[in-house]
Each structure stands twice: as structure tokens, then as C-alpha cells.
């Protein structure tokens, strides 16, 4: 783990690691014969709880393991809170999980920056709606369908396929 200022972007002079699993941070790069762009990401080890956090958030707090654990607890509590308090028959759990998952994988899909930013915006809209006082089924369906379509356009990676399946499961819970 680096001791650098969290506001600084990692450089080639030192390495940055996930404080929980010691997975190394990889900066955005262009690789391979096709010059495919590889987005910035942490190479988390299987089961690392920090994988629930978006790369940018984890990068900003990775020098402080206690902050990382607090951020993980906050995200999980937020998901549980809104699931338990939902009384309108809409189980927001699947939608919150989908939004979080898309936030985690968006940088690994190899999408051009404008499309990735739009994917993340829709995921945030879904998260906001799913965690609102009274999530509207129509808005949940709209945002989930948009995510499903955008993930389908991202290609046939395992991560995108899993996201599409999660979206279909969430839509099924609405009684589509």
C-alpha cells in the first residue's frame, strides 16, 4: 500500500494496493495488438470485500484501511436499510445490487469513455431510485432496461453477461 496523498494519481514510481487483499492497482493503459484500452482497476483477490467499492472511491481512500472498511459497511448498511424499509411491494435489493455491480465492472468492459460514463450515470440513477423512500416500479424498469441494453452493447464479456442476467432477474421481480 502506498503512503501517497489520496488525491494524487498513482504513478510509475510506486505501486498502490488494495488495503484488504493487496490486489495491485493498474492504471489505464493501451495493450495488445488491437491497442485495446484497459481501464484503471484494482486486481482484487477472490472474496475481497473492497470489490464492492467503485475504483475511484477505493483509490481515494486506499491509504486508510479503516476508511475502506467504513465505506464497505456504509454501502452494505445502505443496501440493507432500503430493502428492509420497503413497504410498497417492490423489493429494491436486486436493483441496488445491480447498480452496485455495474459501478464495479464499468471500468473493465473496455467501453469508450462517453459510453462508460453514461452507463455509470444510469447505474447511479437506478441506485438513487431504488434507495428512495418510495421506489417507483416504472422508473426502476426504465433504468434497469437501459442498463441491460447498454451492457448488451458492451460485448460478451463474462462481467457484461452477468450484469444482463442480474438486470433480467430484477425486471422479473417487477413482474415484467
TrEMBL record:
Taxonomy, superkingdom: Bacteria
Protein's name in the database: Uncharacterized protein
